Amino acid sequence: MFEGICIDNGAEKSVASLPAYKRYCAHTHATLDLQPSSESFRMGDVVHSSLGKAKIRMLVNKEGNFIEYSTDVVDVDIPILLGVDMMKQLRWYVNEVTK
Predict the structure, then answer these.
(1) Please, where are the H alpha helices in the chain?
(2) What digits encode the pLDDT tens for the residues 33-71?
(3) Could you say which of 11, 58, 68, 92 has the lowest number of CB atoms within 10 Å?
(4) Which residues, including other chains, have CB under 8 Å from residue 33's CB and lie 6 or more apart?
């Protein structure tokens, strides 16, 4: 079952696991399509190489508007994370004062 996209201001780069991306594709009826990528991601003491880049569409309001962005997919069990790289590009921030 697809659980959504996690906005993570602790993740330097946006990334998704292969299982989470497969659940996203099943939920949205998108084609599982990975484009080549040479990125790698350090998670703890382990470096994970990208399996490829995937396009993700994320609904942003009730009117049906969405953003589309590319994210790397890795072979580790994490959710789809929208990281600081995309937050900066979109000019989004997490308000930690008023929550």
Answers:
(1) 18-28, 84-90
(2) 999 999 999 888 999 999 999 999 988 889 988 889 999
(3) 68
(4) 54, 55
On whether the CB atoms of residues 15 and 47 are closer than 8 A, the answer is no
Q: Which amino acid is at 7?
A: I
pTM for the complete prediction?
0.85
Closest CA to 48 of 89, 70, 17: 17
Looking at residue 94, its amino acid is V
**How many CA atoms, within 13 angstroms, populate the side-chain half-sphere of residue 49?**
4
What token pair was written down for 9?
A: 């201001």
